[in-house]
Amino acid sequence: MYLIACVDDRMGMMFNHRRVSQDKVVSKEIMDMCKNHSIYMQEYSAPLFSNGNVCNIKIVKELPFRELIGQYVFVENPAVIEESFVEKIILYRWNRKYPADQYFPIDLNGWILSETKEFSGNSHEKITKEIFVRK
Fold first, then answer.
1. Are 78 and 107 contacting, i.e. CB atoms less than 8 angstroms apart?
2. Radius of gyration over every alpha carbon of the chain, rounded to an integer in angstroms
3. For residue 6, is pLDDT > 70?
4. pLDDT, tens digit, 9 for 90 and up, residues 73-123
5. Which pLDDT score is estimated for 115?
6. What distance in Å separates the CA atoms of residue 98 and residue 75, rounded to the nearest whole number?
7. 104 contacts 78 by C-beta, under 8 angstroms
């Protein structure tokens, strides 16, 4: 599975059961990246992607990790991530520190940074996209 997540500078993802941040440009970037593919996510995340139909959004109650090999999966709740099924990690970094009580659970020391891209978002001056592959 190709895991997609957004994190702050401390790898925070959620605070008080809500996402720490959002940005329309990131949503569009993700949809463009997943063009002509399905992207799996939980219902909570679906409204972020309601402005475009360039990819096939699959809303699932629980993520069937075994069935998602080779598929894009957008995750906002770190509690549902199972690292053993992750083939690639695509992180969008907000480049800010937000209050968080739930953090990205995968230690990136076991991964290789293969690509980096910086761009301006709608609500963030600088967003960094990083793609990690297994060592």
1. no
2. 14
3. yes
4. 999 999 899 999 999 999 999 999 999 999 999 999 999 999 999 999 999
5. 97
6. 18
7. yes
Q: Which two tokens stand for residue 17?
A: 């059961």
Separation CA 100–CA 123 (nearest Å): 19
Nearest by Cα to 57 from 78, 76, 42: 42
Going from the C-alpha of 71 to that of each of 15, 78, 96, 97, 132, the distances in angstroms are 27, 18, 29, 30, 15
The two structure tokens encoding residue 25: 């440009």
Q: How far is CA 70 from the centre of its chain?
A: 15
Residue 29 makes CB contacts below 8 A (sequence gap 6+) with 92, 119, 129
Can you tell me the distance from the alpha carbon of 135 to that of 120, in angstroms, rounded to the nearest whole number?
A: 30
The pTM assigned to this predicted structure is: 0.94
